[in-house]
Specification:
6 strands; about 220 residues
Length: about 220
């Protein structure tokens, strides 16, 4: 069983490494940031240290798997990660943050075991993925970017067709549509558009607002 200084070192390492990952998420303004990542990693490290302590305490009294509690952390962290995932039309946000929470939980577990080198290497790869590879991912997905548009318009026959025609002229594809009534005369039209890199946001707004009866558009 590790002594007091070793326990402090394990918990402190888990906090520092997770803090680096959490800082990146915080600066990116994600739902789980600096404090959340530290809490997850330190708690995971504590679970593993406590698991080792229990194993040392009871090893002559009962058969016990020293990795059992750690396995529960890995599966249980999914509930916390699910809270960071948000679905907006065809766009799903928060998956990366959920994965980073799961990652720092695993980093905390190996810190609890005293496997510092593995924890440090893992943190480096996580940060590389979040910071450097994010730029590459943006470049790849830029051509297929989805845009959420909210339009307030009068409720009249053919109005949605007119909006679709204007968007079609700019080679923009409508991926999903929902309509909500505002009152007897107006509706809110929510669209998810597949963006065209050659068309600016200002061009879409100008084109749609030129349609008679459209009073508001937000993107």
């Amino acid at each position: 069983m590790p002594d007091t200084l070793e326990i402090l070192l394990r918990l402190g390492t888990a906090a520092i490494l997770a803090g680096l990952v959490g800082l990146e998420r915080e600066t990116s303004k994600r739902p789980a940031g600096f404090r959340t990542h530290i809490l997850v990693s330190v708690a995971s490290s504590l679970v593993m240290i406590g698991n080792l302590y229990a194993f040392e305490l009871l090893k002559y009294q009962t058969n016990m798997d020293p990795m059992r509690l750690g396995a529960q952390v890995i599966s249980g962290i999914g509930f916390l990660g699910a809270g960071t995932i948000i679905k907006e039309g065809v766009t799903i946000r928060g998956l990366t943050t959920a994965a980073s929470l799961w990652s720092v939980a695993c980093i905390g577990l190996v810190c609890g075991l005293g496997f510092y080198l593995g924890a440090i290497f893992a943190t480096c790869f996580v940060l590389l993925s979040l910071i450097t590879l994010n730029k590459i991912e943006i470049m790849i997905n830029k051509k297929n970017e989805y845009v959420n548009v909210v339009i307030k318009s009068v409720d009249r026959p053919g109005q949605l067709g007119r909006i679709g025609t204007e968007l079609g002229k700019m080679n923009i594809t409508i991926k999903s549509i929902s309509i909500e009534p505002v009152d007897d005369y107006n509706v809110i039209i929510k669209l998810v558009l597949k963006g065209n890199k050659d068309v600016k946001t200002e061009d879409i707004i100008k084109s749609v607002t030129s349609i008679e009866g459209v009073s508001l558009i937000e993107m």
